[in-house]
Amino acid sequence: MAERLPPLNALRAFEAAGRHLSFASAAQELRVTQGAVAQHVRGMEARLGLRLFERHARGLRLTEDGRRYHDQIARAFRLMESATRDLRPSARSVTISVTPSFASKWLIPNMPDFTAHHPDIDLRVLATEALSQFHADGVDIAVRYGVPRSAAGLEMRRLFAGEAIAVCAPDLPGEGISGRVLLHHALDIWPEFLDAVMGQARPDHLPGPRFSQITLAIEAALAGQGVALASRFLVARDMRLGRLVQAVPGSLTSAQCYVALCPREDLADPARRTVFDWLCAAAENESCAQQ
């Protein structure tokens, strides 16, 4: 019977390509070349004597045979993944993939609360800007910043609104932002903030140091080096402790926000469900406290 089955690597390539409807996205998930995925699929089609995909300029579409086959193969992979997870002695650990700024400024300060209420669950924090592939990367839950978009098979919950404020150390010389150093980060929202909040024309160039991550700009503001823009919830704790103050009134709102994501089927696991619900409840409590 095993000889009649396509190779496992080919089945995995077909499952990923059918889920993404893209050889390129499947290749990125599996960490192989796009050509390798396409070759696996062509080999399967030749072996089975039928077409699994229709190729179009905009991407792929499963044929009727391909769709039926993909439903069964995807179910088989999920069953194998579930069986493997059940064997692991660390079944009560949950890995959260978050951005470095979210990890350092919100998640880590709030982790003692989670540990106190759920000492039987070990949180593992993966701080990265890279998008997570969940099972392929060993990630259970991801928190990302962007425009919320529904995705098949994913549970998505909004955590924090995209509301940026200007903050600085309380003893920083000067007033407002006039004459003060502007601290920039990867999102580069100072021009938009000056236009929408301050009513100033967007300049062609704004001087000031530039940091690759928001948390580094916040740390520079804490050190009295200038004024930084950051999501209100990321600096709320430092403001409560008197380490930072709002440099100017007003805030810049955005359609982007922080969201929690988890494969819907994985939320049947009690540990993952507990962590996901805690994230949502803790974020809601934080948001209410800021109002």
The number of helices is: 9
Helix percent reads 40-55%
Order of helices and strands: HHHEEHEHEEEEHHEHEEH
- Roughly how many Å apart are the termini? 63 Å
Question: Quick check: average pLDDT?
Answer: 89
Shape: elongated
Structure report:
This protein is an alpha/beta fold. The protein is 43% helix and 21% strand. It has nine helices and ten strands. Strands 3, 4, 5, 6, 7, 8, 9 and 10 form an eight-stranded mixed sheet that branches. α1 packs across α2 (23-30), α1 packs across α4 (64-87) and α5 packs across α8 (232-240). The protein starts with 7 loop residues before the first helix and ends with a helix. The model has no long low-confidence stretch (mean pLDDT 89).
List keywords for this structure.
elongated; 10 strands; alpha/beta
Helix and strand arrangement:
Layout: H1 8-20, H2 23-30, H3 34-48, E1 53-56, E2 59-62, H4 64-87, E3 93-98, H5 100-117, E4 122-127, E5 141-146, E6 154-168, E7 182-183, H6 190-196, H7 214-222, E8 227-231, H8 232-240, E9 245-246, E10 252-263, H9 270-290
Parallel strand pairs: 3-4, 3-5, 7-8
Antiparallel strand pairs: 1-2, 5-10, 6-8, 6-9, 6-10
Brief write-up:
The chain is 43% helix and 21% strand. The protein is α/β, with parallel strands linked by helices and 291 residues long.
